[in-house]
Amino acid sequence: MINEFRTFIAKGNVMDLAVGIIIGAAFTAIVQSLVHDLINPVIGLILGGIDFTSMFIVLSGDVPPGSSLEAARESGAAIFAYGAFLTACINFLVIAWVVFLLVKAVNRIKDAAVDEGEPVPAAPKGPTQEELLSDIRDLLKSRGT
């Protein structure tokens, strides 16, 4: 059983997945810092110096005016925290954009490696439409149809 586990762990896919998760977690911290520390202040400046991350609307319940989002959540009131949602959307868009650029760069590197390497053999040519039709005709004739 231990040997099977060693074989499973030693496979490239498992190790690649582990490295990807670790790098992804570190990357998430960087993106969150980018959004919270750089993008949100600029958007807040555009909105007149307001930190929109903690913006919310009280749907029901008592929340003292000027309370923070955390205080409103702790009070048990039903709130509509649209600022936190906008922050999550910005995080997603930044992560998606960076992943897109990363995949695009990796594909470009792979294409360059294929171009520099041995020529890729052409795919074998399949039968033409006429050949397929004549084969079907011959099969139908042999069955007496």
TrEMBL record:
GO MF assignments: mechanosensitive monoatomic ion channel activity
Subunit structure: Homopentamer.
Entries under Pfam families matching the protein: MscL
Chain's role: Channel that opens in response to stretch forces in the membrane lipid bilayer. May participate in the regulation of osmotic pressure changes within the cell.
GO CC, alphabetical: plasma membrane
Highest taxon, organism lineage: Bacteria
NCBIfam families named among the record's database cross-references: mscL (TIGR00220), PRK00567.1-4 (NF001843), PRK13952.1 (NF010557)
The keyword Nucleotide-binding appears for this protein: no
Location of this chain's protein in the cell: Cell inner membrane; Cell membrane
Main location class: membrane
Protein name, as recorded: Large-conductance mechanosensitive channel
Residue ranges crossing the lipid bilayer per the database entry: 12-31, 38-59, 79-103
Protein species of origin: Limimaricola litoreus
Lipid bilayer topology: Multi-pass membrane protein
Keywords assigned by UniProt, alphabetized: Cell inner membrane, Cell membrane, Ion channel, Ion transport, Membrane, Transmembrane, Transmembrane helix, Transport
